[in-house]
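Below is a filled-in request sheet from our internal design queue. Each sheet records the structural input a requester submitted and the sequence that came back. We keep these sheets so that new team members can see what a complete request looks like end to end.

REQUESTER: design group, bay 2
PRIORITY: normal
MODE: inverse folding
CHAIN LENGTH: 520
BACKBONE (tokenized):
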């Protein structure tokens, strides 16, 4: 059995990883590429993708910590190891309930560096203090300053549904980051990370020299783990995981790819990237579990999908967007697609050069099933996403052919939803709810399927049966069954050999639940 190595789960400090001998995937060749220029950089990546670790790597490099880079790619080419003053602003790990919380966070960081490089003003304005700090650090050390900002947008994302607080935060950050251009004579290098891409007419409107490398092919693997890095750096972990799960190494690699791979951050969709957080946790547990969603999902995002009656099928089939949709995003937009991409629920699957457009879809099985679990209670009528729905019970009943019990279970969930706060359930929401149940059960389900002389609402392929669903709202199940029969939906499956089960359903908006169904 292979020996377990130390994997850096939750460790975002390059120094600690190197000193304590944790496994490190060498990204320093990309550091070499970046430091050649003095242009400020911006990088957007989903949460838990290694942005903080890469910033920490840059910090150690610019602090001249040659000892930490021994044996890494950059150690073969770097000879100077010059020490620069580094200002590191970390917006992770704190809740920003008000503008005052943001000011306090920036103030604490500025006080730390003002104690080192000198305080040149009594102003309480954080933008003025940063401007003076840049000059003070330059004058004291004789070297230009390095500015690193981790998760610049966290304070904004926390108030995406509160425009008043968001605007105040946006105004403060705009003035603060404006120094990166106005005081560039004092700056050697600047690197900003976040989940959402910057809006050029807002926070970074004055930073027209900012280089966004979020969609750069050269830097697509700056965060995350590529296929080559996986197979080169994690051989012991792959072998141990295969052994624990009693599968071959090839089968283990295939399962890892299915669950955690599939991200693309450039037009070249051959460069697959794995989610590093999920991958490392899977290795530690020797289990193909769901890890990324355990770190939290923005509630506003799933609610936004429900409010706009989002086409849930497009999550898998793909959504066509232009390049501007991926490069810029206004946080007060009611369009969830750009945010779904930027937060990692969707990723690039194809690029059409002729039209400069992308096709984006769900990256892998972990994201797909995690997102579906979040959406399910919302479509059932639980706006606070607090209803636990056990999919295994649905699966057991359907496999046993207990279709009536299956429908009763669905109806019980609708009936239990809070009546007054509940979103009104339209036919689309009922259809979506059933579709999500079947998807989570792992069965093959299609909605709006062309059959016979029309389109059935949903068709489910199970091992021993094919289920044809038709939904109505404020009508009758009889009308729904008449539609199934008159349009001859079952004709497409007459030679399949499995039993065909027709399920006609009516939803009552007055009762806010299913009031009638027929099974034939």
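RETURNED SEQUENCE:
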């Amino acid at each position: 059995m292979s020996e377990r190595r130390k994997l850096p789960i939750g460790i975002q400090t390059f120094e600690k990883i190197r000193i304590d001998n944790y496994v490190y995937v060498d990204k320093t060749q990309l550091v070499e590429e970046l430091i050649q220029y003095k242009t400020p950089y911006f990088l957007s990546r989903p949460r838990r993708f290694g942005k903080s670790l890469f910033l920490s790597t840059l910090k150690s490099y610019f602090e001249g910590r040659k000892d930490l880079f021994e044996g890494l790619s950059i150690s073969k080419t770097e000879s100077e190891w010059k020490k620069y003053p580094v200002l590191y602003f970390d917006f992770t790990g704190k809740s920003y309930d008000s503008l005052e919380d943001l000011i306090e966070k920036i103030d604490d960081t500025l006080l730390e560096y003002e104690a080192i490089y000198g305080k040149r003003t009594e102003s309480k304005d954080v933008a003025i203090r940063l401007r003076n700090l840049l000059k003070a650090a330059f004058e004291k050390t004789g070297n230009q300053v390095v500015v690193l900002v981790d998760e610049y947008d966290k304070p904004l994302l926390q108030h995406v549904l509160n425009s008043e607080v968001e605007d105040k935060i946006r105004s403060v950050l705009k003035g603060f980051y404006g120094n990166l251009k106005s005081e560039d004579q004092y700056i050697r290098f600047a690197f900003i990370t976040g989940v959402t891409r910057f809006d050029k007419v807002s926070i970074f409107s004055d930073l027209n020299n900012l280089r966004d490398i979020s969609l750069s092919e050269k830097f697509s693997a700056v965060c995350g783990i590529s296929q080559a890095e996986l197979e080169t750096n994690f051989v012991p972990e792959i072998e141990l995981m295969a052994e624990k799960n009693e599968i071959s190494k090839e089968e283990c690699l295939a399962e890892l790819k299915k669950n955690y791979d599939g991200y693309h951050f450039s037009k070249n969709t051959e460069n697959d990237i794995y989610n590093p957080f999920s991958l490392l946790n899977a290795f530690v547990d020797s289990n193909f579990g769901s890890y990324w969603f355990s770190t939290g999902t923005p509630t506003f995002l799933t609610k936004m999908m429900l409010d706009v009656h989002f086409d849930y099928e497009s999550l898998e089939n793909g959504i066509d967007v232009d390049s501007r949709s991926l490069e810029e995003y206004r946080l007060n937009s009611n369009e969830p697609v750009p945010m779904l991409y930027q937060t990692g629920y969707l990723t690039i699957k194809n690029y059409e050069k002729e039209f400069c457009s992308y096709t984006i879809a769900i990256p892998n099985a972990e994201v797909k099933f995690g997102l579906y679990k979040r959406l399910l209670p919302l479509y059932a009528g639980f706006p606070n996403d607090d209803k636990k729905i056990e999919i295994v019970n649905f699966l057991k009943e359907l496999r046993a052919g207990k279709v009536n019990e299956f429908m009763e279970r669905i109806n019980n969930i609708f009936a239990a939803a809070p009546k007054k706060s509940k979103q009104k359930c339209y036919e689309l929401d009922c259809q979506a709810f059933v579709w999500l149940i079947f998807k989570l059960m792992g069965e093959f389900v299609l909605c709006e399927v062309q059959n016979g002389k029309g389109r059935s609402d949903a068709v489910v392929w199970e091992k021993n049966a094919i289920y044809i669903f038709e939904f109505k709202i404020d009508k009758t199940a009889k009308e729904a069954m008449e539609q199934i029969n008159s349009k001859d939906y079952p004709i497409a499956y007459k030679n399949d050999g499995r039993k065909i089960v027709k399920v006609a359903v009516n939803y009552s908006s007055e009762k806010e639940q299913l009031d009638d169904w027929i099974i034939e």
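SHEET NOTES:
- The two ends are 55 Å apart (CA to CA).
- The chain has a mean pLDDT of 87.
FILED BY: M.R.
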